[in-house]
Design goal:
Length: 164
């Protein structure tokens, strides 16, 4: 994970890397998949983050990339609906390798949410990728979500919508 940097001093190479890995990868993956999906329909679930919905200070490249993922999701949902392709996005807060690396760089005993500039969610913990995030993705890929497209689903323990 990149070290937080103020916007006016944000390293341009880091910015370009964020765009390449977090935005361009989504663009090219969707572009490669759609010709096969146009004939039979399907589901696409992209990953944004809270930074892609509300921004995160000192992470300009990451926030820009994840906001771009939200934009690509919405545009593709509009354009590909006629092909029975649902395109949605999950914005998770989960303990991943990246999260653990970020926490390792913080002072001992610091609040894992506050350490990266977030308030604590109402559930009080960062989700587990398998137990908390995967079911949200599975739902969006299921027939139960056939009428949902262009949606950004925060899987964040209430961080976005609820006061803690």
């Amino acid at each position: 994970m990149m070290a937080p940097q103020p916007f006016d001093g944000f390293d341009e190479a880091v910015y370009e890397q964020c765009i390449a890995t977090s935005l361009n990868s989504v663009f090219y993956a969707m572009k490669a998949a759609v010709p096969f999906m146009k004939e039979r329909g399907g589901k696409i679930v992209n990953f944004a983050s809270m930074a892609g919905i509300r921004g995160t200070k000192q992470l300009a490249g990451y926030a820009a990339a994840k906001m771009g993922v939200v934009g690509l999701t919405k545009v593709a949902a509009m354009e590909w609906a006629k092909h029975r392709i649902n395109v949605n996005c999950v914005a998770p807060i989960a303990i991943s390798d990246v999260w653990q690396q970020a926490m390792a760089a913080q002072p001992a005993g610091s609040d894992p949410f506050a350490a990266i500039g977030l308030r604590r969610n109402v559930l009080g913990y960062a989700g587990d990728p398998e137990a908390d995030i995967a079911p949200a993705v599975a739902f969006l890929c299921s027939d139960a979500a056939r009428y949902i497209t262009g949606h950004i689903l925060p899987a964040d323990g209430g961080l976005l919508e609820l006061e803690s």
